[in-house]
Amino acid sequence: MLYPLIRRFFFALDAEDAHGVGMRGVSLLSCTGLAGALAKPVPARPVEAMGLKFPNPVGLAAGLDKNGEHIDGLAALGFGFIEVGTVTPRPQPGNPRPRLFRIPERQAIVNRMGFNNGGVDRLVANVRAANFPKKGGILGINIGKNFDTPIEQAADDYLACLEKVYPLAGYVAVNISSPNTKNLRELQKDEALDALLAPLKAAQQRLADAHGRYVPLALKIAPDLEDGQIAAIADLLRRHRMDGVIATNTTIARAGVEGLPNADETGGLSGAPLFAASTEVVKKLAAALKGELPIIGVGGIMSGADAAAKIAAGARLVQFYSGFIYRGPELVGEAAAAIAGMPRKP
């Protein structure tokens, strides 16, 4: 019952200001050993995916901790894995404020942050200082391109980030699906995606040889894809032997929030209204991939039942972001318990 009271305080603040206060609070609770006051116990349910063993299948999606400043505080809440970023080669301020909007009537959020982050060197320094990965915690690092890098040169930005984060990452997520960087989603098209994945996989092998460890690569895709695009992406994931796929990012659609305050703000919509569309993409990907690589299901998880539904649709792991804002840390244990109650897949 504690988090709903805390949320009332946060929701009285500007959304982005509240985010900063909340993240500092998470770190403070961890330092004082009080994180358990907000989180439910998380049942162990080890899951193997991408060659990694996750203590439980419930993760934090990228975007909440862009610069990796609060890794240990978030880890204390029981997540099976944490994904930080999106990070770009150079620091960038992102889009002008305001750029983060709540739609509480539908448990939704619209954001047009624009990959605001301190750059990959700052993130690397923060990850090096964190204890979670040193203790064997699985840390995903989500990489993107700078807003002013021409789309034709996007691969250079992804490769620059991969080079720097590789030694520290449990896995690397390649974000080509944010709607808030101009033309970024063009990279999901057949030829562009083919041209991006080939050098990334070559670099992955080179870095694996250099560092003596193989770090998996996962691709993060949008929910706003037609069936033919999903099939084509699945084919490319197989062809390039990608290690995983994250489905999905935010949507540019506004189904379920029409006419509500903030619904017409430009940006990506997340939260409960995204659940059905993102889960449908998971189902279609699972059918196309036939188990050849694991899916991380993201989008609209607001309850344990939602998390279980993603697994039933074909995901092996799940992540949430907006659900954490609306439900708080108790959602971690609730989601893990719901999945633990499901029959294990072969």
Question: Describe it for me?
Answer:
With 346 residues, the protein is α/β, with parallel strands linked by helices. The protein has one domain (2-340): Aldolase class I (TIM Barrel, Alpha-Beta Barrel), CATH 3.20.20. Helix content is 38%, strand content 16%. The protein is built from eleven helices and 13 strands. The strands form three sheets. The chain has an eight-stranded parallel β-barrel with strand order 3-4-7-8-9-10-12-13, surrounded by four helices. It has a three-stranded antiparallel beta sheet with strand order 5-6-11, with no helix packed on it. Helix 9 (304-313) links the parallel strand 12 and strand 13 (317-320). It is globular. The termini are far apart. The relative contact order is 0.15. The model has no long low-confidence stretch (mean pLDDT 94).
